Amino acid sequence: MPSNSDNWEYVLTPSDMFEYRRVEEKLYQRKTYSYYSTLSFTSDKLYDDFEKEASKNFTEMSQKIESMVKNMFHKSSLRDKFVKSHIIRFRNQQDRNRRLSEQLYKDPARWTASFGVTLMPPKIERGLRRIIVHENYKYPSHDYDISVAELSSPVPYTNAVHRICLPDASYEFHPDNVMFVTGFGALRNESEHLGESQVIGDSGGPLVTPDARDTWYLAGIVSWGDGCGAPNKPSVYTRVTAFRGWIASKTGV
């Protein structure tokens, strides 16, 4: 359901939108031209069936927009050329933008993985071969907030690039474990310096902890949070052990 002030766009049919007629002086015949256009508008009302052509809301808004277009042309120099306009559908602009964003996020050609303690320049850089997003993930929900990416080529371990192990599904992390989160997000939120917490832009970053043998394990993945490091506003992570079976099914690891 669209919320207040949702951005919507309306689309006019090629055959019915703006028809222009002109007289060909040499041939003495009329020609009709049809134009197709997509225009955006903002609605301050709630329309739960805005996209259903036979609905009352669709009809009501279509008539308003068609009347507005007609009046606009009748006040212009093209008033004797205009025939009619016709709305064929409405689409929520936010939904459309979300679908486009999801397509971009899943395109491995648009991503580069950097390794090491610095980004500018990175110690090691790799392209991505493929990105697999959990099939049950549905934006804007945070459920199943996990994906895996396959690198275009292996990364060697160095003094600056170390491995993080995947825990077994039965591995237990304890409340007194010391954990570290890594990311490249903002360091400040509304001029307040941030400390030991995830921050804006860290989504997807690793939450890691060492065991008694100093072997590091991936306990969580930064998912979301309300603000950055604020009191009584805990950060939320995807629990890796809960998705260990899914990771293995997609990667064989």
From TrEMBL:
Keywords: Disulfide bond, Hydrolase, Membrane, Protease, Signal-anchor, Transmembrane, Transmembrane helix. SMART domains: Tryp_SPc. Gene3D superfamilies: SEA domain (3.30.70.960), Trypsin-like serine proteases (2.40.10.10). The keyword Transmembrane applies. This is Transmembrane protease serine 11E. One of its GO terms (cellular component) is plasma membrane. Residues 128-252 form the Peptidase S1 domain. SUPFAM superfamilies: SEA domain, Trypsin-like serine proteases.
